[in-house]
Amino acid sequence: MNYKRIPLFFILAFIGLLSFAQSPVVEVKINPQRITKGDLTLTDFATSIDYIPLETRDDCLIGYISFFDISPNFIAVYCYQSKAVYLFKRNGQFVKKIGDLGQGPSEYIDLNSIYLDEANKQILLCDYAKILYFSLEGKFLHSKAVFSGQRMYLAYFNEQFLTGLFSGVYHDSTYHVYNIIDREGKLLTKGVNSVMVKQNSEHPVNVATFVPPILQYTYEGAPNVMEITLNDTIYRITSEHKFIPKYVLNAGTYAITPAIRANTNSYFDTVKDYVALRAINETKDYILILFSYKEKDHYCYYHKKTGTIHSFDSSKGIPNDYDGYFDFWAKRIGGQKNNKLYMFYDAHDFLAAAEQKKHDTHAPKEAMQKLQTILKKTNEDDNPVLLILTLK
DSSP secondary structure string, 322-347? Predict the structure, then answer.
């Protein structure tokens, strides 16, 4: 082979891929007794915050939003109380209710995720037993029977679904925690073995855990997952369906062991003395970590370059010195898509925040004026307000 004829671009690309494949897994040590308070605030991470009130109408009354999806032109939410899916335009204008609860061809029994697929002009409703396909106008197209067992739908990427079943569901065997299936429910690949749990004959129930048992976020175009039940590793999933370990979150003697989780009789009394991971997000320079310890939530950040971890100076999230409003933290399910973090706030809480003590603000005048206009138009019993944080 004449290597002189190989373009330099391909040589550099190959070297880059090789170095990525050989990148070591980074250990993030979490010792709740030694984490010191840091001085970072929201403007260290974000360039802007947008608020989008969801339109309130008699045919669209929304309580708690269990899960959601956001695309360039639409917002889709699932309301826990009404068990209904509602579609909005990106500016918050209500479009229509999607699907119905029931056992018919166009109905669902137990949804666990919804996805907006603008490329195919579809809305996908994921039931444990089937996937339902609707047009962006809300017209039912078709459904596909899918046996998912107890698997959760975690992400939709490259026209494929990532599903997960956390360790401990089946005590006496190991299985793959993650499956990737195509749009029609066909299995494409499996990844990451579960951890066997010793069955407690007195209480042969699945392991105990906080909800959700699997954390997921999308960063740099790829899904990232972490099974907090028994696994301490964050995996990045490549377009070739490879599960690449990126970070290991090591709480040492404060980690919740399989034995602790398997003892469902005393788990919730015991776990308060251990680190229980609740949420993970990622930025260019930091990993954002939320964990519970001693019955308190601890909001922290890990600096990738220095390898240090600190807590934020707030009991509610990242101190908001942008517009002085909510101390922000992304929603645990679906809360990050690349450089966007999402959170929904109840209208009552949204208005109440106006009475709270404010940080010094750095937001442009136009942003502050827009926020004040939204506050004046919002009533306590209105639908939730979506907060979108754009990362640096």
Answer: SSS---B---TEEEEETTEEEEEE-H
Provide the token pair at 348. Answer: 């009552």
29 Cβ neighbours under 8 A, 6+ residues apart? 250, 251, 252, 309
- pLDDT tens for the 392 residues of the chain, in order: 444 454 554 444 454 444 445 578 999 999 999 999 999 999 999 999 999 999 999 999 999 999 999 999 999 999 999 999 999 999 999 999 999 999 898 999 989 999 999 999 999 999 988 999 999 999 999 999 887 667 889 999 999 999 988 766 665 567 888 999 998 889 999 998 887 666 555 544 455 565 567 889 999 999 999 987 666 899 999 999 999 999 999 999 999 887 787 777 788 888 899 999 999 999 999 999 999 999 999 999 999 999 999 999 999 999 999 998 889 898 777 799 999 999 999 999 999 887 776 677 889 999 999 999 999 999 999 999 999 999 99
Distance, CA of 192 to CA of 175 (rounded, Å)? 8
Q: Kind of pairing, strands 111-117 and 333-337?
A: unpaired
3-class state of residue 30 by DSSP: coil
- 223 is written with which tokens? 């899904």
Report how far residue 30's alpha carbon sits from residue 309's, in angstroms, rounded to the nearest whole number.
Answer: 8
Angle at CA 223, nearest 5°, toward 169 and 328?
95
Q: What class does CATH assign to 27-391?
A: mainly beta
- DSSP 3-state assignment of 253? helix
Helix (H) or strand (E) holding 373: helix 365-377
- How many other β-carbons are positioned within 10 Å of the β-carbon of residue 310? 16
How far is the C-alpha of 179 from the C-alpha of 192, rounded, in Å? Answer: 9
Find the helix or strand (DSSP H, E) in which 352 lies.
helix 347-352
Can you give the residue ranges of every domain in the chain?
Answer: 27-391
How far is Cα 233 from Cα 110, in angstroms, rounded to an integer? Answer: 29
